[in-house]
Amino acid sequence: MTITHHASEALLLDYATGALDEAWSLAVAAHASLCAECRSALGDMERLGGALLETAPPHAVDDAGFDAVLARLDSVTAEPPALPVASDREYVLPAPIRRYLGGDVGEIPWRRLGVGARQVLIPTGTPGVTTRLLRIPAGKPVPAHSHGGLELTLVFSGAYSDSTGHYGRGDFQEADPTLRHQPHAAPGEDCICLAVTDAPLAFSSPLMRLVQPLIGI
Amino acid sequence: MSEGTAKTPLEFHASLVKAIAETGDRAAFETLYRYFGPRVKAVALRQGTDPGLAEEIVQETMVNLWRKAALFDPAKAAVSTWVFTIARNVRVDLLRKTLRPEPDMTDPSMTPEGEPPPSEIVSRAEEAGRLHQALSRLPAEQRLVLEQAFLEEKPHTEIATDLDLPLGTVKSRIRLAFRRMRAELGGGE
């Protein structure tokens, strides 16, 4: 698997510092699960955070606070070292997504979207942001649309193409209101992807705009 | 420490975390508390947290350090990096009361890292020294945006508003500063 479309540095940095809200963070965490390059960039950002923490002018802590912590240590259970889980099973969805949905692509309640596509909504605590898993039938187009706000897309299986390029497993797309596109799923395999949006899509077709409230996209 | 070899501060801190993991060494814990506690507190105060809550963030961070000591891998990170991530997660949890999904390093679907080429395997001590030096040489305007991002946990858009700069300028200053730091770390370029 070769990932050619990465999360932007600005998005990775907001994730590394903790400034990014949950729904967008889920997209970054899922991409980083599949992309060693972005994981390495995040690691470097955290190292930079460590160096900045160390060089920050310190501020005195309460002695009573230290005593309170010491008193708590007896009742704290230490976490054992993390060991890789031996598994023959191959997952389509990376762990952060499986944790939200309770399973992999074959175990979750897909709902029809009407245009041949299916979706599963992923509940997060970020108000005004919709997080969904989409399944676009192989070889089929998604109706042309632009974006009222930001849209992050991450491919887990199959692929799609639009005017900006070809997106396969692990590839990440950040679309803002300046992009109008018509993604087209590649033939052979349904395209399953994560889509995080903070505004409804703006469909070019009047018919799509008419049915939009009914199909919930 | 007793064996008489001069340790860098970084190796010293790593040995303290190991002592906590292996023997529940409270003296080692106190040394780390006295060093990192005031730094974690300073960062929390910079974010406009009231002193009581800043103290709570310090305490939660240090309790988590104790609890997770066995998870610390000195080959992968400096103690300061690890403390930064623990304190960040405590702040997200306590202040913003939100979740921060993370990759699961034990996930069988995780793409493997691949072995780093030998040139990248520099000691963590050497690396931290270089990073600190590079930070001190950074132009003031680049250092300022980095501090706002990492220590004040501001998103790019908020930094731009606060400094009255176009978003593109903030992004490019952060990008330049990060590239420079990465070059010092010997990776990513």
Tell me about this structure.
The complex is a heterodimer of chains A (217) and B (189). Chain A has 217 residues and is of the alpha+beta class. Chain A has a domain at 104-215: Jelly Rolls (Sandwich). Chain A has helices at residues 9-17, 22-34, 36-55, 63-73, 95-101, 206-215, and strands spanning 111-112, 118-121, 130-136, 145-147, 151-157, 160-162, 165-167, 172-175, 180-181, 184-185, 191-197, 201-203. In chain A, the strands form 3 sheets. In chain A, strands 1-2-3-11-5-8 form a 6-stranded antiparallel sheet, with helices on one face. Chain A has a 3-stranded antiparallel sheet with strand order 9-4-12. A 3-stranded antiparallel sheet of chain A has the order 7-6-10, with no helix packed on it. Chain A is elongated. The two termini of chain A are 30 Å apart. The longest helix of chain B has 21 residues, at 26-46. Chain B has 2 domains: 7-101, Rna Polymerase Sigma Factor, Chain: A, CATH 1.10.1740.10; 116-189, Orthogonal Bundle (Arc Repressor Mutant, subunit A), CATH 1.10.10.10. Chain B contains 8 helices and no strands. Chain B is an all-alpha fold and 189 residues long. The interface between A and B is large, with 76 and 85 residues.
